[in-house]
Amino acid sequence: MSLSHLSFYSAFTLSSLGLAFHRTHLISALLCLESMMLSMYIALSIWPIENQATSFTLMPVLMLSFSACEAGTGLAMLVASTRTHGSDHLHNLNLLQC
Questions:
Q1: In a designed cystine with 18, which of 32, 44, 46, 72 is the match (CB 3.0 to 4.6 A)?
Q2: Which pLDDT value is given to residue 43?
Q3: Half-sphere exposure of 60 (CA within 13 A, CB side)
Q4: Could you list the residue ranges that cross the membrane (predicted)?
Q5: Cβ of 12: how many Cβ atoms within 10 Å?
Q6: The total number of structural domains that make up the chain
Q7: In 3D, which of 2, 75, 89, 78 has the Cα closest to residue 43?
């Protein structure tokens, strides 16, 4: 396993562990999701270069556009929950109260 594979595998693993264990604020969950998307983007950018496959060069651009849409939606949810509930704590967000 090369150093680049180890780096983005460990980045994805650490961000998923951060998402699993640090669920107090919505902004920390969004940051963990963004770091997961960033590590997947790096992996998809390196993979066609290593395999000399030109047909998969569009995949990182699609991944980046989905990541931007996910970030915009997450920030909109953060602003909406902060306005309605007063904070971004995830324990305040209850689906039964909405």
A1: 32
A2: 87
A3: 14
A4: 29-49, 61-80
A5: 18
A6: 1
A7: 2
